[in-house]
Amino acid sequence: MKLRLLVTTCCCALLLSAPVSANWYEMTGQAPIEQGDIAKAKQAAIADALERAALFAGVRVNSQQQLVAGVMQQHQLTLDSSSEIREIRLLSENYGGDYVTVTLQAEILPQQQSCHGSQQKKPLLLARVELGARRDAIHGQLFELDKNATAQLSRHLQDYSPAIVVNAVDYSLQPELMTESINRQLFTDGQQFVLLSQITDLSLGKQTSRFWQDDRFERYFALDVALYDLFNNQLVFQQQYRTQAEWNSELSVAGSHSQQFWQQPYGQKIDTVLKAVAKDIQQHTQCQGLLAQVSHIDQHQVAINKGARQGLQVGDNVTVMQIQRFAGKDGLEKMHKSPVTLKITEISSDNAWASASTPTLLSHLQIGDLISINSAGL
After folding, report:
1. Is 213 left (phi over 0), alpha (psi -120 to 50) or beta?
2. Of 79, 112, 145, which residue constitutes the final position of a domain?
3. In a shared domain, residues 137 and 103
4. Same domain, 120 and 93
5. Does the UniProt entry include the keyword Signal (predicted)?
6. Could you tell me the strand order of the sheet in which 83-96 lies?
7. Sorting pLDDT into bands at 50, 70 and 90, what band is 188?
């Protein structure tokens, strides 16, 4: 059946687990109880768990946020029409504090597998979120929001982007620095994508409180993100996310490092944005093939610089596409592909050995050659 859900967006950051068995996925989801509506929160938590399960199953998900006055209000989830959810089992539900937490199992069958890279985890460099709106950060002393938002985004990428392996670093990168030479160096260092983001708006809007109440204002938040494909030296995704919520100046001392900040309406809206970013990154990376480099050649075996962390397993049959760059007459670099089928025989966290049926199949490979890995049968 085609799954279509319309739920209130929620702030969630829970567990993502591997398949229980073939086509069965066990996930935990969470949603806040708003205005005492427990039933609505339960449905939102179930939707959150189902979306995580679908993403982990490699199903393409169309996830849209409904905006009202710039604020994300509703979350519409649609699985692609070729996929089927046969059964959902609600294992547990817990009502603690202001949240509903559910754990469920879902049997998800992709009827057509058109995504050849969904089983591999591509390395992604997460640069620290840049705090561009520093003047606005004085309200609430949010000068560490860049660091704290990066940590929150990293957690959401791990939860909602199973197609990538996140490497978060404590420095920011400017778009103008993403030159061909920098991209090549990052790729040589083992990265395949890099995610840049900048907070561009933290400003206050009109006052919403009465004169006898604590000072409350509308407060805005804007985040610009850019996803770069390092090997192809391309900007593959760019988006600005905007939201707003009520800001209570009396709680400003909490700071963005505290749980109190993230549980307030403004912190929850920022968290919703960061979660939306993670889901969009999943959609733009899940069908990309995993790229590796030949690091060693020993007779009929080659060592590659990708391993278990990137989703490879001993016994995997992989199709290796040798990619050679050469300058054409137009001055642009082009690629030449030569297919070879190998089998993974040994594996570690970030490296693997692959063997060919005969040594002659590898005679043309050299250390440093680039290969594209797609599991056979996908």
Report:
1. beta
2. 112
3. no
4. no
5. yes
6. 16-21, 24-32, 99-110, 83-96
7. confident
Shared domain for 65 and 158, answered yes or no, is no
Enter the tokens of residue 65: 């946020």
**Residues 257, 122 share a domain:** yes
Same domain as 185, residue 214: yes
What token pair was written down for 166? 């996140």
Q: Per-residue b/e over 298-317, b at no fewer than 16 CB within 10 Å?
A: eebbbbbbbbbebbbeeebe
Cβ atoms of 322 and 337 within 8 Å: the answer is yes
Instruction: Give the single-character DSSP code of 198.
Output: E
- Catalogue the long-range contacts made by 338-343 (C-beta closer than 8 Å, 24 or more residues apart): 338/364, 340/365, 341/317, 341/376, 342/302, 342/317, 342/318, 343/315, 343/316, 343/317, 343/318
Q: How many domains does the chain have?
A: 3
Helices (H), 191-337: 259-263, 265-285
Q: What CA–CA distance (Å, rounded) separates 220 from 245?
A: 7
Q: Which residues of 141-176 are buried (b: 16+ CB within 10 A; e: fewer)?
A: ebeebbebbbebbbbbbbbbbbbbbbebeeebbeee
Computed over every residue of the chain, the mean pLDDT equals 79
Domain housing 245:
115-288
